[in-house]
Write a structure and sequence with these properties.
The chain has about 140 residues and is an alpha+beta fold. It contains 5 helices and 6 strands. The chain has a 4-stranded mixed beta sheet. A hairpin with a 2-residue loop joins strand 3 and strand 4.
Length: about 140
């Protein structure tokens, strides 16, 4: 079990990225997408995509597998990670990454600045202002 979340960076062409992003944009397809076709075929054939997993990284190339439920059996199919992820997004199934791949290529997200640090510039500005003494009730208007 990991103490901190990690991200996996997978290089993909702009077209492959567009295929993943379009899956989240209902009715926003620029072109007919093969991933939509495959998702429709799987659903029509009563096959279920249970999960996908980025399984290995060899010579700077990522590999993935699709895990399908077909007629009560689990079937594994090799896939490019970009295709597997695009299909998983469309079929809303888990996207997993093997520990070996995380160890080789995982990155830790940058920690967000503490709220105190984010506001420090405003504190400095306010402290540098020449303001009247603000203690006590406001002065009466004449």
């Amino acid at each position: 079990m990991l103490d901190a979340p990690r991200a996996e960076l997978i290089w993909a062409s702009p077209r492959e990225v567009l295929n993943v992003v379009q899956a989240d944009q209902v009715g926003c397809h620029i072109i007919t997408i093969t991933h939509d076709l495959l998702a429709n075929i799987l659903q029509s054939a009563e096959m279920r995509l249970k999960k996908i997993q980025v399984t290995s990284l060899t010579n700077e190339v990522f590999f993935a597998r699709l895990f399908l439920a077909v007629n009560g059996k689990e079937v594994e199919i090799d896939s490019r990670p970009s295709d597997a992820i695009a299909l998983a997004v469309r079929m809303t199934c888990p996207i997993l990454v093997s520990q070996d791949v995380l160890d080789k290529a995982g990155v830790f997200p940058e920690k967000e600045e503490e709220e105190e640090d984010k506001l420090s510039i405003f504190k400095e500005l306010i402290n540098s202002m020449d303001l009247p003494d603000l203690e006590g009730p406001p002065p009466e208007k004449s």
